[in-house]
Structure formats: structure tokens, C-alpha cells
Amino acid sequence: MKKKILIVLLFLINSNLFSQNDSINVNPKYWEDQLYIGVAYNIFNNQPDAVDASEFSAGLSFGYIKDIPLNKGNTFAAGIGIGYNYDLYTHTLVANETNFTINDDASLNKLKTHNIEFPIQIRWRTSDAINYSFWRIYAGMRVTYNLYNKFSYTLEGEDFAFKNINSYNKVQTGIELSVGYGAFNLYTYYGLSSVYKDATFDNETIQTNIIKLGVIFYLL
């Protein structure tokens, strides 16, 4: 009796698996890469001539992207998402409420930002409904809204900090590209907006923008 029950159970399990495969083949609609986590090396680009290059700076991003297939095979799709971004910049400009200067005696000169980001992508991939390891090229733009910024430095043993200064550009946009295979992808971002607004240094308008180079992992 037990043997007959076991045979029936195995038959039902196999039937269920075949029916699932058939449903996948008949209904090829699926979503890809809806969660992302990225780490990047940040570069302050287009700094004033007298300003030294930034030292090591890094960023972390994660969020959700709604995948919208655009063709029957799902090789082309659009992506619209929302996420969180934290950036740390080590730089040489000394900031206060009204202007920027250079002071060679200042140390631990940092900028920390917390942002909400909105990626908008056009996606090409070689995926199918049952295979996760595939090539992808995702390109688009990213809009960032700054929630919090803090400029800090140490001078003659005293710590200074300025939060949410008006000259920081709270809304920034840039173009981005990620290319890779499987979960691992190379990532680059080029800022189209200036980091600062109405800010000058030595009578020169500061037009610094951000470049990011890193890796991004897409999940689910």
C-alpha cells in the first residue's frame, strides 16, 4: 500500500513540474533585475584650477526598479525606480555658509550626503524566463534629490561643520551605464548638473560635477 502511495505522489510531483514548465513556455512574460545594490568610487570633476584633485571618495546605492518589458521576447525593457544613495567625498575646498576657500592647514575635509535617487533606464538583455545568467546593457539617466548634506573639517584642533548649506544643489541629474553578465556589472555615472549653485571660488564660478565608477548588482 505504501509503495502505491509513493508511486502516486511521484506521479503528481512530476506532473506539476511539467505543467510549470509548460506555463513558463506559454506565458513568457517576466520581470528582471528589480532590486539593485551599487558601490562606486566618486570623483569631483571640473574643479577650479587652484583646487587639488579629490582624495579617496566612495558611495553606496540600493533600491527598487520596476521592470517593464517592451517586446515579446523581453529582451528590451524600460526601468523606472526609486532608491537611496549615500556619498562621502574627501576634498580640498573649505566650505562655510556663504563661500568656499582653500586652507592648507585644514584636515579631514569631507562632504557627506544622503539622497533619494530615481533611475530611469532603457534595458537590453539576453535573458529568458528560466535563465538568470545573461548579458545586459542598461543605459539611462538618474535624478537625485538631496535630503542632507554636511561639510566638515578640522582646523587648528577645532572641528567645524556646516549642514544643508544653500549653495549645495539639491536636485542633480546625470547619465548612467551598466554592462555585465550575471549579477556582476560594471557601472559608470556622469553628472550633468553642477554640485553647487551660485557658488564661486577666487571669483570663479564653481562648476564641479560628479563622476562615479563602480560595480552594481541586480537581483530578482
Distance between the first and last residues' Cα: 43 Å
Average pLDDT confidence is 83
| Strand neighbour order, sheet with most strands | 1-2-3-6-7-9-10-13
- Strand coverage percent: over 45%
The low-confidence parts are 2-27
What is the element string, with H for helices and E for strands? HEEEEEEEEEEEEE
Query: From the structure provided, what is the oligomeric state, counting identical versus distinct chains?
Result: single chain
Largest sheet: 8 strands, antiparallel, barrel
Number of strand segments:
13
Q: Radius of gyration in whole Å, from Cα?
A: 24 Å
Assign an overall shape.
Answer: elongated
Q: What share of residues is helical? A: 10-25%
Structural class category: mainly beta
Number of helices: 1
Structural overview:
By secondary structure, the protein is mainly β. It is about 10% helix and about 55% strand. The chain is built from 1 helix and 13 strands, in the order H-E-E-E-E-E-E-E-E-E-E-E-E-E. The protein has one helix at about 1-25; strands at about 35-45, 60-70, 75-90, 95, 100, 105-125, 135-155, 160-165, 170-180, 185-190, 200, 205, 210-220. The chain has an 8-stranded antiparallel β-barrel with strand order 1-2-3-6-7-9-10-13. A hairpin with a 2-residue loop joins strand 11 (about 200) and strand 12. The protein is elongated, with a radius of gyration of 24 Å. The relative contact order is 0.19. The model is unreliable at about 1-25 (pLDDT under 50).
